[in-house]
Amino acid sequence: MTASAPPLEIRNLSKSFGERRALDGVSLDLAPGEILGLLGPNGAGKTTLVRSVAGRVEPESGTLRILGFDVGDDRARAVRGWVPQEIALYPLLSPKENLWTFGRYQGLDGAALEAGIRSSLDWIDLADRADDKTDKLSGGMKRRLNIAAGTIHGPRVLLLDEPTVGVDPQSRERIYAMIGELKARGVSLVYTTHYMEEAERLCDRIAIIDHGRIIASGTKDELVKKTVGTRQAVALDAAAPIPATLAEKLGRLGAVVEGTQVRISVEDPAGEIRRLLDLFHAENVPVRDLTLKTATLEQVFLQLTGRELRE
Amino acid sequence: MSMVLAVAKNRLMNLKRDRAAFVLAFVLPVAFFTIFASIFAGGGRATTRKISVAIVDEDGSDASRRFVAGLKAEAGLSVGLKPGREDDPSGPLYTAAQAERAVRKGEVPVALVIPKGFGEHPLSFGPAADRPKLALLADTADPIAPQVLNGLIQKVAMTSMPAAMARSGAAEVEKWSGGLTPEQKERLDASIAAIDKGEPSGAAAAASAGGGAGLIAVQTRDVLGETKKNPTVTFYAAGLGVMFLLFSAAGAGGALIEEAESGTLDRILATRVSMTKLLLGKLVYLACVGIAQLTLMFVWGAVFFGLELWSHIPGFVIMTVATALVSSAFGLMLASVCHSRMQLVALSNLSILLMSALGGSLFPRFLMSEKMQKVGLVTLNAWALDGFQKIFWRDEPVWSIWPQVTVLTALALAFFLIARRFARRWEAA
């Protein structure tokens, strides 16, 4: 491990599955102790990118280094942690046994393994359920154990793939606190999520990926400034179906139409909202609701990809 | 009623989508019927297997030669007179000791020793005490062969040695009637001479009609089972043990499929465990479970069924380790080839029952036709069972199982390499 090597360095990474280009020249860096949020619609290439860093996808071209080591190198495996999206645990084993398994698979043994199991159980608040069967735990507990199984060996670089999916708000808060603790320990994290508020709250920097390319990256403020600028978001809900002629006119203004919902970002709210309402009036389509919001990450995403994050 | 039919139709639609279940439901029974029909009915024709017999002619008389020729002409027997190639004119003939060894080693299920003096009194209608007895050396693991041979010996005595039979009959008549007149004796001798030349004779026909067992005195000796407490238990312990070992290895190998489906396999392969190490670890585990299973089976057999385990420990250990290893590698191979649990269940049921039927786990191979016995050697069951039989039934020395151990180990290696090759699909895409 070279002292100056960044935790993660990705250069021109490309990968195709048959005809489909999953990654198309992706370059990314991760700074020490940084949390990088990876956002993108389904099928954008997020999972392929994370799996490449985890060593589970072999890129066709480009380089991928973890603390200066090639991802396939045993030293890279030792400093990398991966928390997959699925609860990838043994349901019949206890939390303690699952932690023993993954700790051992990461090369821990003896006192170090015992200490790792103990501290992990305390960290995820499962010391009192250490010997229960994992499939008897609640969804939130399993999620926490899933994270601990990927961090028991004390990785320097951690890949977290949607760690809060299907988790109740209370457990989600607990997981956020765990991520904060990891960051405080100096762990560098790549965090993929579908939740904008999560990305805004946790991530130091955000990279937006679409069609296998990083289309923007930076802090939330930088992204907003770069993409939406000082524009604000207008959301309109029509009380009747929007005819094709109106949809076409709205499209020319840069609005996104979905059923009766219309979204558009505006520079001059007063003038542009009037123009929007005039169009509805002219086509005789009544408006049920209209809201104006300051720019959010969601808007940035929409602006860049033309799609909702959950599409 | 329409709802009931809707439920039935839904199941039918599911069955059509699930090819593995489809195979189980329709192809498997037909496949098994075919295999069992081949084993028991000789490929559809109602032919019985030929019984191999090693014959030692210590007498070397005209009568004994004629008797051996008669046995050779029997369609149900495959007679061997030489330990080497039968068609080698200069090859040495079997000695009694060699023939017994051949039975012990399982080369033939039965041997026949024709003692000196047989030609002088080949058969008798009287008490057997004073006549030389044929020694029938049998391997009673095959209970049919000695009985068939015994029956054929009596039959051949009547059809191949009518002259001897007539002489013996005449001697009895002379003994009990107080002697024949010179004229009667002359006519009788002429008649017997005619029989010797192969001419039909009233005396021979009469003797044939008289028939009956025990014309030739035969003493059967069980050369293998005479010291065994419970001969058949060895066969069942090994046969069923190997079959269930395969089932449990295939089932446990399925953990690999579950790990792949749950994402755990992905996670493992991102740690410091490589696919080769993972498979080797699973092989070690499966083999240990297999060793424990076979050990339990044999200890149980020893305690409750008189299986002679304690006097065969070294051979048992070697055969058990080799068998557990090959079964485990086979289970891993099946799991790595299949894409779902359902496929694994179908494939393992099909292949394991097939191998068990052909390889002698369900029905002893030595009772199958020669052709089916040879076919059986493509299965690991046959090699494993042969090894266990050598140790427990034939009391052969440990080194004698080297061919079985070599084949099983080579198969284990081949299965493991195939498993490793198929497991590549789980490695980095």
Describe the structure.
The complex is a heterodimer of chains A (311) and B (429). Chain A has 311 residues and is of the alpha/beta class. In chain A, 37% of the residues lie in helices and 27% in strands. Chain A has helices spanning 46-53, 74-79, 95-105, 110-123, 139-151, 169-184, 196-202, 220-228, 244-252, 269-282, 297-305, and strands spanning 8-17, 20-30, 35-39, 61-66, 69-70, 80-83, 157-161, 188-192, 205-210, 213-218, 232-238, 256-258, 261-266, 287-294. In chain A, the strands form three sheets. In chain A, strands 6-7-8-3-9-10 form a six-stranded mixed beta sheet, sandwiched between helices. In chain A, a hairpin with a 2-residue loop joins strand 9 and strand 10. In chain A, helix 3 crosses helix 4 and helix 3 (95-105) runs parallel beside helix 5 (139-151). The longest helix of chain A has 16 residues, at 169-184. The mean pLDDT of chain A is 89. With 429 residues, chain B is α/β, with parallel strands linked by helices. Helix content of chain B is 63%, strand content 6%. Chain B has 17 helices and five strands. Chain B has helices at 2-17, 19-41, 62-72, 96-104, 144-160, 162-177, 182-196, 202-210, 231-253, 255-262, 264-269, 275-305, 313-337, 341-359, 370-376, 380-392, 402-422; strands spanning 51-57, 77-80, 110-114, 134-138, 218-222. In chain B, strands 2-1-3-4-5 form a five-stranded mixed beta sheet, sandwiched between helices. In chain B, helix 3 (62-72) links the parallel strand 1 and strand 2. In chain B, helix 2 packs parallel to helix 14 (341-359), helix 9 (231-253) runs parallel beside helix 13 (313-337) and helix 9 runs antiparallel to helix 14. Chain B is elongated, with a radius of gyration of 30 Å. Chain A binds chain B through residues 17, 51, 54-58, 74, 77-78, 80, 82, 84-90, 102, 105-107, 149-150, and chain B through 262-264, 266-273, 428-429.
